[in-house]
C-alpha cells in the first residue's frame, strides 16, 4: 500500500502543481443591453376591387382603400423592436410605415412604445408604462398578423380605435397561464399573446396618438383565463369593461355638442380555439356620444355590437389552411369619427387563409355589407350595400 501511495503521489502532486500554474479563464463579459434586443415585423399588401358591385361602399374605420379609387394598398408595415433590458425591465417599440392621413400615405407613425417593469422574480406581476394596447376585447388585443379576417369588427373596435392609448397598466398571471398564452400564439392557434389573466389600468381616453383633452382619465379592467381540457383543447373566456369621459375630436359647424360625454362599455368574449374546429364570439354594450339627426346634435346614446365566427384549421405537407365564416353587427355612435357618426352595420364574411411557409400568408376574403352612416354632413343618411372579394399577401420577417 505504501508503494502504491508513493507511486501515485508524485503524479498527483505534479497535476496539482501544473494546474496552479495555468491562469484561470477570464470571466465572460456581461451581455450588453442591446444584445438582448430583437427586430422583427410584418407587412400586408391588399387589393379590394375584385367582384366589387358598389363603389360607394366604404369603411373609414377598417380599410380606407375600400371603395372608389381604391387600388393596391400597403395596409400595414410594422417594425418591432423588443427585448429584456434585464430581468426586471422590458421594452417594446413598434412604428408603422404604412400609415396614412390627410391624403398622405406611407409615413412613419408610432403604434406602441411601452416599458414593462416586473415586480417579482417569478414574473407574475407587471406594470406597463406608455402607449400600448388597452385590455378591452379579445380581437382588439389579437395582432393583425394573427387574425384571420382582414379587419377587426366594428362593434368592439369602435370602443378603442387603433386599439391603443397612453397609460399605466397592471397585469397579473401565474406561470401556467403565461405558458398557455405563449402556446396559443407560437403554435399558430391565433391567440392574443400575454396580457395577463387580470388586467387593470388608467389611460388618457382619447385613443392612440391623440393628446389628452380633459382633466380625467379612463379606467379599464379585464379578466380572462385560457383553460385546457384533458384532450388538449384550449378554451378561453373573458369579461372586460371601461369607463371615462370623452371629448369629441371633430365636429361639423352648426352641430351642437357637449364639452364631454360619458364613455363606458362592458364586453364578454369566448374562444374555442381551432383544434381543428374553432369558434369565437364577442359582444359589447355601452354608452357614448352619438349624432342625432332629429336635433342636429351629438348626444349621449346607447350602443351595442359584436361578432360570431367559425373556422377550421388543417395542415398538409407542412402548410396550414384555415377557412372561416364571420358575421358582425354594430348599432351606435363611433366616438372618434366626424360628429360621433351614427352607424348601423350588418356584415357577413367568408374566406380562407393559406400559409405555405411561416414567412408568407395569403388570404382571400369575401364581404357582403350593409352600412348606414349619419352625421352633420350626411343628415339624411348614407346607406350602401354591396359585396367585394379582397386579397391580402402578408410577409413575416
Numbering strands along the chain, what is their spatial order in the largest sheet? 1-2-3-4-5-6-7-8-9-10-11-12-14-15-16-17
CATH topology annotation: Porin
Mean pLDDT: 93
From the helix content, strand content and strand pairing, which structural class follows? mainly beta
CATH architecture: Beta Barrel
How many domains make up the 3D coordinates? 1
CATH class: Mainly Beta
Q: Give a short account of the largest sheet.
A: 16 strands, antiparallel, barrel
Contiguous runs where pLDDT drops below 50 for at least 5 residues: 1-19
Helix content: 10-25%
Structure description:
There is one protein chain. By secondary structure, this protein is mainly beta. The chain has helices at 2-21, 138-141, 154-157, 175-186; strands spanning 37-50, 73-84, 89-101, 104-118, 125-133, 164-172, 198-203, 218-228, 234-246, 261-272, 277-292, 297-312, 314-316, 319-333, 342-357, 360-375, 378-396. It has a single domain, classed as Porin, CATH 2.40.160. 10% of the residues lie in helices and 54% in strands. It has a 16-stranded antiparallel barrel. β2 (73-84) and β3 (89-101) form a beta hairpin. The chain is globular and about 90 Å long.
Summarize the structure.
This protein has 397 residues and is mainly β.
Topology at a glance:
Layout: H1 2-21, E1 37-50, E2 73-84, E3 89-101, E4 104-118, E5 125-133, H2 138-141, H3 154-157, E6 164-172, H4 175-186, E7 198-203, E8 218-228, E9 234-246, E10 261-272, E11 277-292, E12 297-312, E13 314-316, E14 319-333, E15 342-357, E16 360-375, E17 378-396
Antiparallel strand pairs: 1-2, 1-17, 2-3, 3-4, 4-5, 5-6, 6-7, 7-8, 8-9, 9-10, 10-11, 11-12, 12-14, 13-14, 14-15, 15-16, 16-17
Amino acid at each position: 500500500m505504501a508503494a502504491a501511495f508513493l507511486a501515485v503521489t508524485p503524479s498527483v502532486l505534479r497535476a496539482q502543481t501544473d494546474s496552479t500554474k495555468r491562469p484561470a479563464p477570464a470571466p465572460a463579459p456581461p451581455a450588453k443591453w442591446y444584445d438582448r434586443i430583437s427586430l422583427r415585423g410584418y407587412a400586408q399588401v391588399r387589393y379590394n376591387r375584385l367582384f366589387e358591385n358598389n363603389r360607394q361602399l366604404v369603411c373609414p374605420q377598417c380599410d380606407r382603400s375600400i371603395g372608389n379609387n381604391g387600388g393596391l394598398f400597403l395596409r400595414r408595415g410594422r417594425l418591432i423592436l423588443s427585448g429584456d433590458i434585464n430581468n426586471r425591465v422590458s421594452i417594446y417599440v413598434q412604428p408603422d410605415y404604412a400609415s396614412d392621413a390627410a391624403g398622405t400615405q406611407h409615413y412613419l407613425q408610432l403604434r406602441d412604445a411601452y416599458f414593462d417593469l416586473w415586480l417579482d422574480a417569478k414574473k407574475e406581476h407587471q406594470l406597463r408604462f406608455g402607449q400600448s394596447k388597452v385590455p378591452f376585447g379579445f380581437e382588439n388585443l389579437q395582432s393583425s398578423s394573427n387574425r384571420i379576417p382582414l379587419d377587426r369588427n366594428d362593434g368592439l373596435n369602435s370602443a378603442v380605435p387603433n386599439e391603443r392609448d397612453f397609460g399605466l397598466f397592471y397585469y397579473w398571471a401565474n406561470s401556467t397561464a403565461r405558458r398557455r398564452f405563449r402556446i396559443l400564439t407560437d403554435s399558430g392557434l391565433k391567440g392574443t399573446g400575454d396580457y395577463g389573466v387580470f388586467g387593470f389600468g388608467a389611460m388618457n381616453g382619447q385613443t392612440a396618438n391623440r393628446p389628452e383633452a380633459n382633466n380625467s382619465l379612463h379606467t379599464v379592467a379585464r379578466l380572462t383565463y385560457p383553460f385546457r381540457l384533458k384532450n388538449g383543447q384550449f378554451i378561453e373566456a373573458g369579461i372586460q369593461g371601461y369607463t371615462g369621459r370623452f371629448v369629441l375630436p371633430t365636429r361639423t359647424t352648426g352641430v351642437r355638442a357637449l364639452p364631454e360625454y360619458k364613455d363606458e362599455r362592458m364586453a364578454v368574449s369566448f374562444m374555442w380555439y381551432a383544434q381543428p374546429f374553432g369558434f369565437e364570439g364577442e359582444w359589447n354594450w355601452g354608452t357614448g356620444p352619438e349624432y342625432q339627426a332629429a336635433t342636429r346634435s351629438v348626444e349621449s346614446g346607447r350602443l351595442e355590437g359584436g361578432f360570431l365566427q367559425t373556422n377550421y384549421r388543417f395542415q398538409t405537407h407542412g402548410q396550414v389552411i384555415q377557412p372561416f365564416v364571420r358575421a358582425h353587427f354594430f348599432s351606435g355612435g363611433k366616438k372618434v369619427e366626424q360628429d360621433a357618426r351614427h352607424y348601423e352595420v350588418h356584415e357577413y364574411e367568408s374566406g380562407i387563409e393559406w400559409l405555405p411557409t411561416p414567412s408568407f400568408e395569403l388570404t382571400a376574403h369575401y364581404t357582403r355589407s350593409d352600412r348606414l352612416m349619419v352625421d352633420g354632413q350626411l343628415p339624411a343618411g348614407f346607406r350602401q350595400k354591396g359585396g367585394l372579394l379582397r386579397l391580402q399577401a402578408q410577409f413575416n420577417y
